[in-house]
Amino acid sequence: MLEKIQIVKQRFDEVNDLIIQPDIISDQKRYIQLNKEYKDLKQIVDKGLVYKELLDNISEAEEIIADGSDAEMVEMAKMQLDEAKEQLPKLEEDIRFLLIPKDPDDAKNVVVEVRAGTGGDEASIFAGDLFRMYSKYCSDKGWRVDVVSQSDGTSGGFKEIIFEVSGEDVYGTMKFEAGVHRVQRVPQTETQGRVHTSAATVMVLPEAEEFDVELDMTEVRIERTTSTGPGGQSVNTTYSAIKLHHEPTGMIVSCQDQKSSHKNLEKALKVLRSRLYELELAKKQAADSEKRKSMVSSGDRSAKIRTYNYPQGRVTDHRIGLTLYDLSNIINGDIQKIIDELMLAENTELLKANDDVI
User: Fold this and answer.
1) Structure pTM?
2) Each residue's pLDDT tens digit, 40-51
3) Which among 54, 139, 232, 340 is most buried, taking Cβ atoms within 10 Å?
4) Which of the four pLDDT bands, split at 50, 70 and 90, describes residue 153?
5) Alpha helices of the chain — where are they, by DSSP H?
6) Burial status of residue 78 (CB atoms within 10 A of its CB: 0-12, 13-18, 19 or more)
């Protein structure tokens, strides 16, 4: 492990020199990438220093015990040895996880798209429940949520809602929510008290920066219209709503959330870039055999990942077989415990795939 830490230290020193070079500072894309790498490497280097000190303490204590000439020193050395050996396994495990190659997208903000699936009005209501769950979760994390566009359901909730989440390491956390979410409960419209099953699809796209996706604006047709739905005079009477048509892929992105046409265009372009970036990401993941094997974040949008069973107050995550009887708190935003288990499962998979690290 010391050898691996030393290799990381060499790269850390290189990056430390690079980020102060004028040509790097003037290249925004490269500078941001290197700064992120610097922070990640520093964590390993700092842990490595503690690890080296611990190994030195063990070695020193063993020498004193082997010498045995000073009884008092031997007693102190034994205590030091026991303490160091107790700390060692946890520290080694921490370093093993830090040495797992990082997904560069984990640090990105995200665009989340929640769409009602099978189940009619009840599916729209459930899509609304999921949006509220994520809004509360993001608020508790100190992340910012901005709605890009929404299509309201006829009996509440949303047929579709698209929103941005900004904060620290958002994609690395939210990516586990991508897939089909299923709800089992008695709908508000059900008169005979029968439990129905409805579904909503969640897509989590890493937000693409301008330098991540080169968008050829000659391939984008911009349509400006007046906004529809609730809103004040300035929203509904000015041509502020934006609809983008991306000719090569047939993608259509709409945004009418802002009063300003310029701001709506900015948001719509952000969503379009993120969708195009996610297309490339999906191709890359499909080509990566280890990613494809992963049961935790396969990127399969059609995969049923979680069931919310109201009669039993139960939430089950099917990827890792986790069942929690805490539905009321979970649907109110307390999803961190599920995400922690999913992160642990993915890290364990990655650790197996990188068992040559040590």
Assistant:
1) 0.70
2) 899 999 999 999
3) 54
4) very high
5) 2-18, 22-25, 28-67, 71-98, 120-141, 170-174, 233-237, 261-287, 289-293, 327-330, 336-353
6) middle
